[in-house]
Structures are given as structure tokens and as C-alpha cells.
Automatic annotation (TrEMBL):
PANTHER family: CITRATE SYNTHASE
Lineage, highest ranks first: Bacteria, Pseudomonadati, Pseudomonadota, Alphaproteobacteria, Rhodobacterales
Residues annotated as the enzyme's active site: H308, D366
Reaction it catalyzes: oxaloacetate + acetyl-CoA + H2O = citrate + CoA + H(+)
Annotated Gene Ontology cellular component terms: cytoplasm
One GO BP annotation of this record: tricarboxylic acid cycle
UniProt record similarity statement: Belongs to the citrate synthase family.
Keyword line: Acyltransferase, Transferase, Tricarboxylic acid cycle
Protein name as annotated: Citrate synthase
Pfam annotation, one family: Citrate_synt
NCBIfam families registered for this protein in UniProt: cit_synth_I, PRK05614.1
Length: 431
């Protein structure tokens, strides 16, 4: 728990209330208002949680002004360059980088759980053929609670561990099958001699009629996209998972809630929206028109892939993603990709524009990820499922941390009620 040497004084109607101030290991101090309502009979008001810490956590730290992202203290750029997704998953889940033996054991546990219960095939087939893969994922992940009863008791640490491994292991299979169903191809079963990213690529792109050889550069790029999306502290979907699980709901239901929240265009859906926007812009000469629209208060249009609630500087993930985009497009021989040209020029113009400078709007992780995924052959509808697959480990790490906390209680925000006060019912003939 954070240090509490300081305090803050709140004065209401001339009466003072001393509030403890918690000092974290990094980041701004936090005023502890947990006893405020009991003492002063007031609530605090913070829609969108712009100034409210909803929990304490040891997993991920972001310094939005510096553009810094740390997982368990390790900078994301070092992890993206030197580590790989399953090692980062271990770090997020258990708090330290694994030894070689621990990593081997963890990878083998994840690998042993990649298959889905065969009856789940029927579940996929029940969806309309044109269902968005995110719609399928929300349903199928939630349905896991109907298939894996032996890992839904959240009071049992062993069951929590099994559920965690199952979710991390099965998410690529679920996402790949949602895609295969969407395009009318047969489901491809996981192949456990492949690494996590290669296995996912094979399940998405191989067909029974042909051998599929995974390109190691694409597999590395895929793994890096997973790593960059693995966790991002208390964002909307993670907070959704925490709130859902605070009621004691089972892990599969909670992660399904996270998938649902991630889908929105202000969050995980931004990568799809960003590529669609870049395509709509189409050519460099049309950029000024879209910049003007983004600045126009009367136009709801926003530059997708720009801006962030926490980062008021470059999103450190965007820097790595941009470098990856160059490598992948170079490998695929599409370095003159018109969408990439539009993206680079849009970024340059926006970063020089006073509106974006003043509001500290910088490219976020989604600005370049769509270009890479598109070049790899994924349709835009698969961008957010890939984000969900990767973020699952973050959701689970935060969920495990919360459940293991003896102070855990149900999340129950209060409100500033501005509706009618009590009034008498009026019979229909008198209205
Ligand atoms: N284009 C144009 N103007 C913008 C943009 C943008 N992308 N983002 C924010 N602004 C303006 C906004 O109009 C507002 O102006 P004003 O102060 O004059 O009213 C100001 O900047 C602050 O915006 P806000 O909506 O109050 O900021 P927020 O912290 O609530 O929203 C955001 C953050 C990410 C939802 C927002 O920047 C946005 O909608 N960006 C586009 C969507 C996007 O790329 N989302 C992915 C986020 S990163 C991946 C993830 O975490 O899921």
C-alpha cells in the first residue's frame, strides 16, 4: 500500500476535514476520500474518472507527460525489442521476468490449452455468417463459462490460475475462428510446435488445401503487436473487467465484458476506424481538408489514432509501431503503400498544427497498427479482435491482482442526481 505521511484539508461550510494523501512509488499523489461520505455527507464528482484513481496496482505505470509506459517497471520499448509476448505475459501475471525454466513451463502450460472444447464449434456456427468477429468473440468468450465449469470458482487460487491460462491460450483460437467463420473457410486447429504468434497467423491464413509456412518476420511483427497491446493500466476495458469481477462474476464473463467495452471506436475500435479514415482520405492532397474537419467544433469528425486520455506526449507504443510498419511493408515490398504515405504525411502535418500542439494530441498505438495488420492480410474487422486477444493478459493480470486483494469490495459508484424529486403517481386518464 502507498505511503500516507501527507494530508489534505477540505473545508465545507467552514468545517475542516483532514484527508490522508497517499504517495505512490511513481506518479501523482492521491487524496484518499474513502471515508469522506461517512464523515462529511458529500460525494465527489468525476465523470469519466479524469482525476480519480479507482484502485491501487503494481502492474503497469504510465507517465503521460513523458510518454512513458512501464510493465512491472520495465519500459515498453525494451520489452518490445528484447522480449516477446509470452514472456511479457508472465511478467504481467506474476510480477517478475521468468527464469529460463519458468518460461519454458509457462509456455508449455499455455500451449497445452490452445484447443477449444469441440462443442464450441456449434456455437460459432450459430452466428450469422456476416457477424463482426468482435460480436462472435464477446459471445464465445462469455460462453466459455458454460464449458469450463472447473475453473469458475474465483475463491480457489488454482481455479483462477487455470482460467487465466485457458483464456490466454484459447483467445488466439477464438479470434482466428471468428475470422475463418466470417470468410467462410474451415476452422484451422492450433499446432502446438509453433510459437504463440505463428500459431495465430497459421490459424488465420492456412487452408487445408495447401501447406502454410509462417514467415518469421511477420510472426515477429505479430508478436510485437501483441506485446505492445498487452496491458495499459486502468483503461476503459480493464476498468470494466475489474467492475464486472467486483461482483464475484466468473472470469470468462468478466473478460467477455472487457471484450465488449474494447469494441468501441474511442478505445480498441480505433485501429479499424483509423485505417478506414486513412483510406477515406486516400491521397496526401486531401489531408488539409480532414485536418480542418478535425478542428471544426461543429463537425463530429476526429482524427482517429490521435489523442489519448493519459498521453500528452508521443504514445511510446506508436513509436515502436511506426518502426514495425516500415519493416513489415519493406519485407512485403509495399513500401510505397499509399495508406502509409497518407499516415506519415498526416502525422507530420498534425504535429505542426497549433490545434494539435496546444491540445497535446499525438499519434497513439492505433495510428500505425492498422497499416501493419492490413499489409499482413487482415481485414479491418480483425483489428480489434487482435487487440482483444493481446489485451486479455492485461485484463487477467488486473483481475487476479484485484481478486487476491483482501480489501476488494464491489464497485459501486455514486451519482449527482439531477432528476425529479419525489412526486405522486398520476393515473393515465389524468395525464
Ligand atoms: N481529433 C481532433 N480533436 C481531438 C481528438 C482527435 N483525435 N482527440 C481529442 N481532441 C480534442 C477534443 O475535441 C477536445 O477539444 P476541446 O477541449 O476543444 O473540447 C480535446 O481534444 C480533449 O479531448 P477529450 O475528448 O476531452 O479527451 P479524452 O481524454 O476524453 O479522449 C480519446 C481521449 C482517445 C477518446 C480522444 O483523443 C479520441 O477520441 N481520439 C480518437 C480515437 C482514438 O484514437 N482512440 C484510441 C486511443 S489509444 C488506444 C486505446 O487505449 O484504446
Amino acid at each position: 500500500m502507498a505511503d500516507t505521511k501527507k494530508s489534505a484539508t477540505l473545508t465545507i461550510d467552514g468545517k475542516n476535514y483532514e484527508l490522508p494523501v497517499l504517495s505512490p512509488t511513481a506518479g501523482p499523489d492521491v487524496i484518499d476520500i474513502r471515508k469522506l461520505y461517512a464523515q462529511a455527507d458529500v460525494f465527489t464528482y468525476d465523470p469519466g474518472f479524469t482525476s480519480t484513481a479507482s484502485c491501487d496496482s503494481t502492474i503497469t505505470f504510465i507517465d503521460g507527460d513523458k510518454g512513458e509506459l512501464l510493465h512491472r517497471g520495465y519500459p515498453i520499448d525494451q520489452l518490445a525489442e528484447k522480449s516477446h509476448f509470452l514472456e511479457v505475459a508472465y511478467l504481467l501475471l506474476y510480477g517478475e521476468l521468468p527464469s529460463a525454466d519458468q518460461l519454458e513451463d509457462f509456455e508449455s502450460r499455455v500451449t497445452m490449452h490452445t484447443m477449444l472444447h469441440e462443442q464450441m464449434v456449434n456455437f460459432f456456427r450459430g452466428f450469422r455468417r456476416d457477424a463482426h468477429p468482435m460480436a462472435v468473440m464477446v459471445g464465445v468468450v462469455g460462453a466459455m463459462s458454460a464449458f469450463y465449469h472447473d475453473s469458475t470458482d474465483i475463491s480457489d487460487p488454482w481455479q483462477r490460475e487455470v482460467a487465466s491460462i485457458r483464456l490466454i491460450a484459447k483467445m488466439p483460437t477464438i479470434a482466428a475462428w471468428a475470422y475463418k467463420y466470417h470468410i467462410g473457410q474451415p476452422f484451422v486447429y492450433p499446432k502446438n510446435d509453433l510459437d504463440y504468434a505463428s500459431n495465430f497467423l497459421r490459424m488465420c491464413f492456412s487452408v487445408p488445401a495447401e501447406e502454410y509456412v509462417v514467415n518469421p518476420i511477420l510472426s515477429r511483427a505479430m508478436d510485437r503487436i501483441f506485446t505492445l497491446h498487452a496491458d495499459h493500466e486502468q483503461n476503459a476495458s480493464t476498468s470494466t473487467v475489474r467492475l464486472a469481477s467486483s461482483s464475484g462474476a466468473n472470469p470468462f464473463a468478466c473478460i467477455a465484458a472487457g471484450v465488449a467495452c474494447l469494441w468501441g471506436p474511442a478505445h480498441g475500435g480505433a485501429n479499424q476506424a483509423c485505417l478506414e479514415m486513412l483510406r477515406e482520405i486516400g491521397s496526401v492532397d486531401r489531408i488539409p481538408e480532414f485536418i480542418e474537419r478535425a478542428k471544426d467544433k461543429n463537425d463530429p469528425f476526429r482524427l482517429m489514432g490521435f489523442g489519448h486520455r493519459v498521453y500528452k506526449n508521443f504514445d511510446p507504443r506508436a513509436k515502436v509501431m511506426k518502426q514495425s510498419a516500415d519493416e513489415v511493408l519493406d519485407l512485403l515490398g509495399v513500401e510505397n503503400n499509399p495508406t502509409l504515405q497518407v499516415a506519415k504525411e498526416l502525422e507530420r502535418i498534425a504535429l505542426e498544427d497549433p490545434y494539435f500542439k496546444e491540445k497535446k494530441l499525438y499519434p497513439n498505438v492505433d495510428f500505425y497498427s492498422g497499416i501493419i495488420l492490413d499489409a499482413m492480410g487482415f481485414p479491418t474487422s480483425m483489428f480489434t479482435p487482435i487487440f482483444a486477444l493481446a489485451r486479455t493478459v492485461g485484463w487477467i493480470s488486473q483481475w487476479k491482482e484485484m481478486i487476491a486483494d483482501p480489501q476488494m469490495k464491489i464497485g459501486r459508484p455514486r451519482q449527482l442526481y439531477v432528476g425529479e424529486t419525489a412526486r405522486d403517481y398520476v393515473d393515465v386518464e389524468d395525464r
